[in-house]
Amino acid sequence: MPENPILERVLFSEQQLADRVAELGRQISADYRGKLPLFVGILRGCILFYSDLMKNISVDCNMDFMCLSSYSGTSSTGQVRTMLDLRESIKGRHVIIVEDIVDTGLTLNYLLGNLQNRGAASIEICCLLDKPCNRKVDVHPKYVGFTVENEFVIGYGLDYNELYRNLPYIGVFRK
Ligand code: IMP
To answer: Which residue ranges traverse the bilayer (predicted)?
Structure first.
C-alpha cells in the first residue's frame, strides 16, 4: 500500500475500488436492460468513478454531465450552483445520477428536484461513497459503492481544495 503523508490511512485500495465498481456496473446493467439509461455524471468528483463504471455497463446507454458547486474546503456551504448543465432534454428518460459521495445530501436534494421538474421517467442515484451519518436531508441512493464514517476522504476523484483527485485509491485526509 502506498505511503502518503497527506493521508491518515488508505480506506479503499485500487483493487477494492475496481472490484466494487465492477459489481455496481453488473447490477445496474441487469436493472436497466432495454431501458436506454442516461448516466448523468456530476463533475468533477465523479470523473474516475464514472469512467470505470461505464466500462462495466453492458447495455446501450447515453452519457451526459453536469457541474454543480456546493463545497469550499471540508464543509458544505449548503448553496448549490449549476456551473454546467445537460446538453439534451431528459423528458421520458431513465436517469442515473453518478456522484462521488453523498454527504449532507444537499447537493443531490437540489439536483433531484431540478431533474424531476424536467420530466424524467425515473431518476436513481449511484454514488461511490455514502456518508449517511452526516445527512441533513432525506436522500436515498439506490446504488452505493461503500458506506463511510464521518471522515473527510480524498482520492479517486475526491478532492481537498481541488487537489488529490488523481490518487488511484481513497484515503482519509490528514487535516
Ligand atoms: P453534500 O451536498 O454535502 O451531500 O456534498 C456533496 C459533495 O460534497 C460531493 O459531491 C463532494 O464533492 C463533496 N464532499 C462531501 N464529502 C466529501 C469528502 O469527504 N471528501 C471530498 N469531497 C466531499
So the answer is: none
Distance CA 155, CA 140 (A): 23
Q: Out of 52, 100, 103, 130, pick the active-site residue.
A: 103
1-15 per-position pLDDT tens digit: 557 889 999 999 999
> Does 160 score more than 90 pLDDT?
yes
Helix, strand, or coil (residue 35): coil
Instruction: Evaluate whether 112 touches 124 at the Cβ level (below 8 Å).
Output: no
Cα–ligand 1 centroid distance for 33 (angstroms): 30
Measure 103 CA to ligand 1 centroid, in angstroms: 5
Which one is the CATH code of 7-56+91-173: 3.40.50.2020, 3.20.20.10, 3.40.50.10280, 3.30.43.10? 3.40.50.2020
- Choose the weakest-confidence range: 52-56, 72-76, 81-85: 72-76
Active-site residue, 19 included: no
Mutate to test the pocket of ligand 1, among 71, 139, 154 (most ligand atoms within 8 A of CB): 71
Q: Residue 33 in contact with residue 11, Cβ under 8 Å?
A: no
Question: What is the Cβ-side half-sphere exposure of residue 25, based on CA atoms within 13 angstroms?
Answer: 19
Q: What percent of the chain has pLDDT over 70?
A: 94
Please state the domain extents for the chain.
7-56+91-173
